[in-house]
Amino acid sequence: MTLLSLNAVSMNFAGLQALRDVNISIEPGERRAIIGPNGAGKTTLFNIISGELSPSSGTVTLAGRTVTNLTPERMFRLGLARTFQKNSLFLDLTTQENVRLAVQAHQRQGHHWFQPWWAFDAVNERTRRVLEGAGLWSRRLEPAKNLSYGEQRQLEMAIALAGEPALLLLDEPTAGMSVAETASSVATIGALPRDLTLLIIEHDMDTVFALADRITVLDHGLVIADDVPDVVRNDEQVRAVYLGEPL
Prior knowledge:
- The chain contains nine helices and ten strands.
- By secondary structure, it is α/β, with parallel strands linked by helices.
- α3 packs across α4, α3 packs parallel to α5 and α5 packs parallel to α6.
């Protein structure tokens, strides 16, 4: 069964058409990149998938269920998680505490006055596994404000993974990173379990080609290409959109 489907999705903002009849199908375990120049509609597409926006027309289906107008909270409960371009961390809390709070929310473990945090074995075990998967276990006791920018982005991803999603949306995961930080982030994302489906917005083409099984290209709200990386790399229309820049 296809995990995520967008069927004839369009979005209008006061007469401006941000998306036009977008059709996308993503299979379980797939790693799909969404690329395109600024203003192509990538973020609008993510906002519709995650429930931040309702499309003007068309439908969104997740695991066979129509989810077009569901809230982000409902989408989270159905197995979708998302990171954003800007971090939203508790900077004065440790790396471990940031993730533990997300795990508690997912497992619906509220605050207990008479039980210390170490008494919740399931929460602590999940927190450990998430931090290890994100490459942050050695930094678990470090306040989030002391992490490098790249590590903070990895922590943002770890918080999203705390909900054990089936589908993870990564919005420009390497934006603003140094070369070394980008390489570390790509390695971390690449090592995520293959049964986790990834949908990635990214401008860095080296990152896209390192991670994506398939690439969808948007331009002015239209899908102009949707294929495996080698085909997209050599597509003349895609090259024209990127003004001859190497892909």
